[in-house]
Amino acid sequence: MKTLSRLYIGLILLFLYAPVAVMIFFSFNSGGSVWVFEGFSFDWYKGLATNTSMLEALQHTLIIAVLSAAISTIMGTAASVGILALRKRISRSTVMSVTNIPMMNADIVTGVSLMLLFVFIGNLFALRESLGFFTVLSAHITFNLPYVILSVMPRLRATDFSLHEAALDLGCTPVKAFFKVILPSISTSIFTGAIMAFTLSLDDFVISYFTCGHYQTLPIVIYNMTKKTVTPDVYALSTIIFLAVFVLLILYNTLQTKAETRRGVNA
Length: 267
Prior knowledge:
The protein has one domain (51-266): Orthogonal Bundle (MetI-like fold). The protein is built from 12 helices and no strands. It has helices at 2-26, 43-47, 52-85, 89-99, 101-104, 107-124, 133-157, 162-169, 174-202, 206-211, 218-226, 232-266. Helix 3 (52-85) packs across helix 11 (218-226) and helix 8 crosses helix 9 (174-202).
């Protein structure tokens, strides 16, 4: 039974990571073929430095990912505090249900609905272009926000608010007491929420495709390249992104484990 379980897990891991392994392997191909390995080389990694369209798309992607992660983290943390402050349980449940809609909804539905909204607003104000940087950024904040709230809320519920009240009794203002007492206790959850938001924004395609306009991100540029010929420089860039996201996920899991261990000790 144990052998079958290991075999089953091995097949799952093979199915999940074999395509990634092939991509990484062919990113070191010295030739231009994506099917035949002609020799080991770093030429495609060096060629990324001169591929202006790819670098521009990567820059767009990183800007959107960083800004959307930062804004959604701030908004999500503030929203978590506000939701927890609601006295009625039904009010909290209703707000949480509405907040989770972008997370539970299909990406294509979210993308199309946001596109229609942005086009309507653009036509309403007679804008020259309805879709662009701000529409992509707004869309990414929309689907990142529930994940940040989902990360911060459990830790916020486990926080001892008597320390906050004690800080108020000692002369702190509510804002100062929050930054001195509450924020340090939930900082790990805030950081993990920010990492999750960044990684989700980094590889989003469907929602970005419907809301980007002329401001195209890297996944869209790569998708457009697949209609013609895919060169190994795409593999090279994808390998770099995969390794970066992999490191972030390891960091995220480590922080989550430490937070759970700390909650267990405090309990």
